[in-house]
Amino acid sequence: MSEILEAIFQRRAIRVLDAIEIPPAVRGRILDAARVAPSSFNVQPYRFYWVQSPEMKTRAAQLCMGQSPAETASALIVAVADIGSWPATVEGQLEWMRQEGFSEKQILESARKAKLAKWFFIQGWFGILGALKWAILRVVHFWKIIGSVPVARQGLFKWATKSTSLACENLMIAAEALGLNTCPMEGFDGRRLGKFLGLSSQFHEIVMVIAIGKKSARHVDQPQWRRPLEATVKFL
After folding, report:
1. Full-model pTM
2. Exposure pattern of 110-147 as b/e (b: 16+ CB <10 Å)?
3. What band does 122 get if pLDDT is binned at 50, 70 and 90?
4. pLDDT for res 152
5. Is 96 a member of any domain?
6. Domain that holds residue 213
7. 126 lies in a domain?
8. Exposed/middle/buried for 229, CB within 10 Å: 0-12, 13-18, 19+?
């Protein structure tokens, strides 16, 4: 079995961790794995907060309902869907294209697509523009096959959450492959944790908090059950 598959199949949510020191180089590899995850239109609508200082981690653990993984972790990684980062992401990609020697035609085409895409992010006063875009697309859908386009604010967060979750999976598999353990958590006070991290309720939504560290001898492995393949997959 390949090392990647081995990491996937041996990964478990570890409820009790030893708070070992994670070297910066290892931390960087784990976060790079998250960063290269696929995302819709390569917009990468997420950000991660690596909470490791004792004071910050203690408070963050309290806001994670005092769960054991949060209180015993080396660090807490807060994964945030970010629908406000797209302008900086677009500019960063265009600058990268210039540095990498892309043709002016290719750069202009990417810039043109970015200008069109921005209309999906603009909501207008009280979300009126988002509602209007939704109504127009509903009408168009009667005559034309179209994808599920995120236009209203709720749809944008749903769209960003999908990409954020893909990045989180990469992060946890990378941690496992590098000899660490994780536990993803959805039990947290999103409003207070967001305020603690200085997030904007307009652009940010916490998707999950991942506790990371080394499995403690106090952790008790539980038998793992998954639905059988035939209950999960339909071959057509």
Report:
1. 0.90
2. eeeebeeeeebbebeeeeeebeebbeeeeeeeeeeeee
3. low
4. 73
5. no
6. 3-86+153-217
7. no
8. exposed
